[in-house]
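README: folding subset

This subset contains proteins for which both the sequence and a predicted structure token string are available. Records are stored as plain text. Below is the entry for TonB-dependent receptor (94 residues), shown exactly as it appears on disk.
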Amino acid sequence: MKKLALSVILLGLSSVAMADLSASCKIYFEQVDSFVRNIPDDVATKQQAEMIKQNLELTKKQISAMSKESQEEGCKQATIGLKQFESILPSNKK
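--- output ---
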């Protein structure tokens, strides 16, 4: 369920209109890539992790087609959403 929520956050970016990514998008995608790499590799999460990776690649392509201004706005919002999402995960609390 939580992994599905992350997918929704990632897909939310696609509704905002990568050769060149804005600075906030580069940071955002680095954070998401790191998050995805840290998903436990077990039977229960493997399928969801693969879905997230596929959605991430699609989102990167869609974001790259946007103007820099739209990229900045969308990725800043997505970064906030990712931080909020990570804060509710027990394994990510510090």
